[in-house]
Amino acid sequence: MSSTLLAPAILDELRSVVDPRGLLTARDELRTYECDGLTNFRVAPGAVALPVSTEQVQALVRICHRARIPFVARGAGTGLSGGALPTAGGLLISLARMNRILEVDLPNARVVVEPGVINQEVTAKIAHARYFYAPDPSSQSVCSIGGNVAENSGGAHCLKYGFTTTHVLALEVVLPDGSLVHIGKKTPDAPGFDLPGIFVGSEGTLGIATRITLRIVKRPECIQTLLAAFHSTNEAGAAVSGIIAAGMLPAAIELMDNLAIHAAEAAVHAHYPDCGGLLLVELDGPEAEVRALMEQVGQICRDHGAWEIRVAQTETERTLVWKGRKAAFASVGRISPNYLVQDGVIPRTMLPEVLNEIERMGAESGLRVANVFHAGDGNLHPLVLYDSRIPGQESAAMAVSEKILELCIEKGGSITGEHGVGVEKKHMMSKMFAEPDLQTMQRVRCAFDPLQLSNPAKIFPRPRLCGERAGEYKPHSVEVAGLAERF
Amino acid sequence: MDFLHGLRVVEPANEQEVSAALLCANRDGLAVIPRGGGTKLDWGNPPARAGLILSTARLNRIIEHAWADLTVTVEAGCTVADLQHALAIRGQRLALDALWPERATVGGILSVNDSGALRLTYGGLRDLIIGITLVLADGTIARSGGKVVKNVAGYDLPKLATGALGTLGVITQAIFRLHPLPRNTRTLTLDCADIDSAQALLLTLQGSNVAHTALQVRLGGSMAPKMDILLEGTDAGMEAQEARIRGLARVTLIEKGDTSIWRAREELTAGGAFSKLSVLPANIATTVSAIERTGDPEWYAVFYANGIGWLSLNAPLNELRVEVEAGGGSLFVLRRSPAQARMDTWGETGDALPLMRAIKSQFDPNGTLNPGRFAGGI
Predict the structure, then answer these.
(1) A285 in contact with B at a CB cutoff of 8 Å?
(2) I need a labelling partner for A5 at 20 to 30 A (CA). Which of A70, A80, A233, A383 fits?
(3) What is the ipTM of this complex?
């Protein structure tokens, strides 16, 4: 039985664009797509289309535009803010079948990919030449580049290497009216506005990227990862400040608290020391440089109370260390039936007081909170543990989660460092920004998508009315009178 | 800059005054030319209209240097040199080598998206700016981004305003991520036989695991290429890298250069006409051939390893632009010679121009801000 709200004539039209297996309408098939990695929000789409080419994406979007059907693009569906949550009765466009790596240009360190390519596949393709694609979200083995572009994904190593936006040079984009534009260039500083800069991280609200030119990075000569065990997260946090104050820019600095360590141990046996605060510092670069700096990092950690320090030297040791950290979210499932993960950011120096406050909030609500952070850039991932079978726990967990974000705003930070606002945090946007700020951002939305069909009802708590004349240029009266020209 | 002659100048003391001034100008149909240090007022096309100069000279405070968080909040009219001096007290810097830092302002370098040799390692302004306050033509004061380095809440307006030449709004405040000043630096300079060997060495070094901070090639109609390489870090690290560079370069004569050569593009821009190029790193040699084909022997250029170059040349540039754009690059005519007088500054914007116009129309529907100076007549 079909669950669709889309008219049969529209479905036929959509079906004629893609191959017979490229349009899903059966209820059990649609269920797979009713949520992304944020599973407590679920909406069944009207239909799911799986295009294989830019032309097909364009044709699908044109139909949506003409019939005023909202559409949502989806990559691998690993997002944690509901960015790929479908619109009821709308079209979900999955880019999973557009998964080719189209071009590898090593001399210029560029790779051109389709949006469905998996993050880790980019690095796999160029690893033989000792290059890598730097943004490394924890889900990198399954998440797609198109999704990374939408969310401006970060990862542990963005402290040194930057985010997705740092590594996207150009995009081919299907605009919400079905037209095709090419923004940015293979070379930096394309004439005109920095459209890749505004498109990356726009959470699918400005159109659908169908081709993406990425910058790749030469693998450093030497990579070392230090593991330091502290009695508390406060001590570990102070060591982070010490490292930064010493003028170093590590490739990554990660911090885990005791609960997170236990979860990671239970799941992947990374052989982490059982401690109050575990610090993971990765340095990379020329070998002589890394060795000299690693000694200093070790000393700073000892000065701040580290009672055990290990340096992973081999690739196997490093992989194991990282496996524990990257599995941290999922492994919390070993110690709690349910959990909420947050993504707040604070100025790094606020770390100790914010951690204490989070602990207090958890205790007050009777819930446990595990903490994993990208400590170098102040990006917190508190995991609020709860049991949905116990009445009231889920709402209590959501309340704690929200209080943590309010705390981040109060300390001068942000409600999201890399997961995106999506549907989950849009009501928090008015706490972080004033209305004129949000209205100004939405002027961009009106330029790209005046009908607001592309991933509607995401990011912004209140949509802006774009007006009928949106997108048209209104000449100044002097020009109308022929007194001046634009060019 | 004849078009600015005799124009009234407003110097607001705070963003509310900027807002009020823009509101009035926008209502009365006066086109506004924002001005920082006035070093780049001739960049871009001549404005279609000009009624008022809005100077950020009094908006020159450093609001907060959160040194332990490696961020700074600074007003747009602060000069780059003043900012860098203040940051240096805490051993930090905005990791960007801007043109004419003594006079250029934060708002000015953002508006033209200026960058130098350090961009290879630290990125451009788009990668260093984390927050912005923008005053729109209708007086709206809008903040975007914030004080933290990692932040994806809302659209990235700091990037949209960077390089927009003031056509979307007047930047009144910016927040940057900072970097520590390097412990030590070392500049190596080596002679290359010709541009082909310089090109080959550049690609070899870029593809090696030498972690140089910056690399530039200087050359001209009457000057064989010289390559400068900047190393930063510990003495042990730099020593090892220098040895590796010597091995890869296969030249024995490497001089320890002085740091002033990293201001080479400033010298280049002192002599009249100049342009900025952005080409693929592997296309630098072919670009140099195209420069030579203009037939004008009086040229001088600096190319950075990322393919961004600065060229001093008086000959017409139309054919060079065609060739550069065909290779995926861009050529910006920033200060024109008489032979270049009619050239558009920006070149081809491609199929994205209607979208850019739509954005302009949303932010500044009356065309109040810098009308006609930007790409595609925006």
Answers:
(1) yes
(2) A80
(3) 0.97
